[in-house]
Amino acid sequence: MTSRKSSPWLRWTTLAPAIAVVALLLTWGRTLGTLPVVVVAVVLAAAVLAAVHHAEVVAHRVGEPFGSLVLAVAVTVIEVALIITLMVSGGPKTGSLARDTVFAAVMITCNGILGLSLLVGAWRNPVTVFNAEGSGSALGTVAALATLCLVLPSFTAARPGPEFSPTQLGFAAIASLILYGMFVLTQTVRHRDFFLPVDAEGAVLEEDEHVAPPTTKAALTSLGLLLVALVAVVGLAKVESPAIESGVAALGFPQSFVGVVIALLVLLPETIAAANAARRGRVQVSLNLALGSAMASIGLTIPAIAMASIWLSGPLQLGLDPTQIVLLVITVVVGVLTVVPGRATRLQGGVHLVLLAAFVFLAALP
């Protein structure tokens, strides 16, 4: 007798995004009790794991660095939609929401995902090896975008407070799109080899020849399920936000800390995917995810917010405060020292994770 394979539509990786969307539709805009909050949290975790699975299927089909790019852009586009929705519904009191969310994403990706990837990659091998040309150019672009969009508004004089004038905001939006577009062109066309995994001698590693890539149909199905799962993850994170707000208030933390918690939830798929890649010895893929996500968070969010500001009421505060600027500067400096050699140990991973812990601590207790 021959064993019958289960239908792909009955696998948990297919059912989890669908169940998450149903849960989102049933809970959106409602006040939830303790039990529904716990159930939604479980469904959210399942959707995160399903998103990671489908992202890896797509990445295996299209290869690097396209796979990392797909996940980073998909998460960021949905995150931007959530930010704009919250700003439209929240009114003037959400003027700093875009800044807080983008900065949290940058710190989580450049310190959390990057540090975890280096730590996991160095767990079996004393030294992890990656491509300094690709990682260095990505970090340089992130630093330029962060300075133009998040630091300069605190020093310009056209508007009081940490705000851009409409003309300055338009320039920052155009500059962001140009920088992001140039980087994507470099990553995928002109210098694609800079963003491929390398071995201990610096030679580019090819895709795993022992595992056949999925069919085009399977990859397209996973791409669709990935987008569904990410929509559900972001939406359920918003549904959970009242419970998160209550917990934050009970702990005595500032209300802005809610954005940090939501950013941590939204970036979970990329974090797990990066850790999995590092565990397989492909640290460059992890760095592509970390730095690519930071870049997309700024390069796509700021232009979208600039367009939305036409009908948004209230001020748009993009400039970081002095504490945040210090954290950004030290992150860039340490990041440069990490990626320039093209080799890293557990120490570098630990340093970045401590910087993330400092960010979270100071966000909770400023």
What's the short story on this structure?
GO terms for molecular function: potassium:proton antiporter activity; sodium:proton antiporter activity. The protein has twelve helices and two strands; from the N terminus they run ααααβαααααααβα.
Question: Secondary structure elements and their pairing?
Answer:
Blueprint: H1 12-27, H2 34-62, H3 66-90, H4 97-124, E1 128-129, H5 132-151, H6 166-190, H7 216-251, H8 257-266, H9 268-279, H10 283-308, H11 322-339, E2 343-344, H12 346-364
Antiparallel strand pairs: 1-2
Helix pairs in contact: 1-2, 1-7, 2-3, 2-7, 2-9, 3-7, 3-10, 4-8, 4-9, 4-10, 4-11, 4-12, 5-6, 5-10, 5-11, 6-10, 7-8, 9-10, 11-12
Give an overview in words.
The chain crosses the membrane at residues 12-29, 35-54, 66-90, 102-123, 135-155, 167-185, 218-237, 257-277, 289-312, 324-340, 347-365. There is one protein chain. The chain is mainly α and 366 residues long. It has one domain: NCX, central ion-binding region (A middle domain of Talin 1), CATH 1.20.1420. Helix content is 72%, strand content 1%. The chain has a two-stranded antiparallel sheet with strand order 1-2. Helix 2 crosses helix 9 (268-279). It is globular.
